[in-house]
Amino acid sequence: xxxxxxxxxxxxxxxxxxxxxxxFEKENYKAETANSSSMALEKLDKSNFDLIxxxxxxxxxxxxxxxxxxxxxxxxxxxxxxxxYASMETAIEAVRLGALDYLIKPISKEILLFNISRCLEINKxxxxxxxxxxxxxxxxxxxxxxxxxxxEVYKHLIxxxxxxxxxxxxxxxxxxxxxxxxxxxKKFGIKGRAGILKVISHSRI
Length: 205
Known about the structure:
The chain is of the alpha/beta class. 56% of the residues lie in helices and 12% in strands. It has a five-stranded parallel beta sheet with strand order 2-1-3-4-5, sandwiched between helices. Helix 1 (14-26) links the parallel strand 1 and strand 2. It is elongated and about 55 Å long.
């Protein structure tokens, strides 16, 4: 039997927590709730969750604050944000910080479930890529091992992130990104981004 995906619902409105938990359990997800970011972090310390669905506007800490902490300490957990106060700036920041998506309230049942399923699939695929690429990295000769900075660039590279976006994410200049990419390609014995597919397929053998 396939293991059920687990979802942590974070919202300071009890009615929303209760209704979402009921909805997800009817769809065969495992669901738990938290009424604040601090409670969510306590639960993350004790249990693993595949996805966090969190409101952005909460009294104690915002969903953006929670997102930052999750990406730093629980990077394998996907985050999906929702809010009734939409702004393009917040949406861009959320995605830049690692949220898989950003939903505007009110959200229909169909759209919410579609996005939950999609985010879980994306996160599962990312985890698979991470596992296979890490397996490949362990087979590299010592002289070809990636430096810490090269590893950071590489992890963004395998998800197809553009050079400019990698620079913004790592807070480095575009020439610096290109310098690290050149070293990565040389160590892997590939000519460019297309060779990354070769790296990943090699690691599955």
